[in-house]
Amino acid sequence: MTDSRGIEIHDFAKVLTEALPYIREFHGHRIVVKYGGAAMVGEDLKGQFARDIVLLKLVGMCPLVVHGGGPQIGEFLSRLNIETRFVDGMRVTDAETMDVVQMVLGGLVNKEIVSAISAMGGRAVGISGKDGDTIRATRLRVVKASPELAAEEIIDIGHVGEVSKINPRLLLALIEDDFIPVIAPIGTGDGGESYNINADLVAAAIASELAASKLILVTDTPGILDDSGEPMQSATPQAVQGLIAQGVIAGGMLPKARCALDAIEKGVPSAHIIDGRVPHALLLEVFTNAGVGTLIRAC
Prior knowledge:
The longest helix is centred in the middle third of the chain and has 25 residues, at 95-119. The protein has an eight-stranded mixed β-sheet with strand order 5-10-2-1-13-15-16-14, sandwiched between helices. The protein has a four-stranded mixed β-sheet with strand order 6-9-12-11. The chain has a two-stranded antiparallel ribbon with strand order 3-4. Helix 3 crosses helix 4 (95-119) and helix 7 (237-246) packs antiparallel against helix 8. The protein contains nine helices and 16 strands. A hairpin with an 8-residue loop joins strand 7 (142-144) and strand 8 (153-155). It is of the alpha/beta class. The radius of gyration is 20 Å and the shape is globular.
């Protein structure tokens, strides 16, 4: 039997039935979602992501969104004729560049996500890590070693930081008041200076601090690939560490895998690396058995 759009009614019912135990299990639980990649660029995917977040909230979960914005930052720097340089994949961020980062991440991108969630009927509040002293940061040290150097070389990449502490007070207040927090990954140093922080690192730190039940990293890949190049539906932390040691997990997946492992080590029960190019990837990962990425679960 089909409805007027040709949808198989029994398939639709099967999906709802499959979702029920997950809705029951994670009702009232916190889920931290790192939002980035193609899902932040394609108009259809952006709308679907916002709808997915609202649905998670409506069925009783407590989603928090941490977002990136590298392409948007690059576009604005280009408009302003500010040169962009990268070291080991990280943007060198001087004071002028940091001003643009704060404007784009904390303003343009953050508020666009808030507006998208609001358009779908959700109640979102956008903050940066500087608000409420939520994210304390220290300067990230980039160390390079090579046979040609007698000693390790420390490279200054400016206002790029790493999380030193998460103050959960503001986030907890927003959750308690039934809002969906949307967080730009900007932190504050001890001297009041601003730092741009990798959004995966921020999401993992927030998930750990808030005792979230899930950390979900939205990426542009089908998840972690095994040593034969096939996507892994699930993996243990030990298996992921083994793939890192073998060099199978490398490049852009390496920091994501390490963030997932760090969150699990600090008490988050499961971490998911999912393919944000798949329509409604978030719902498929949370509410179906198969999912659309790799689930890493503590043993």
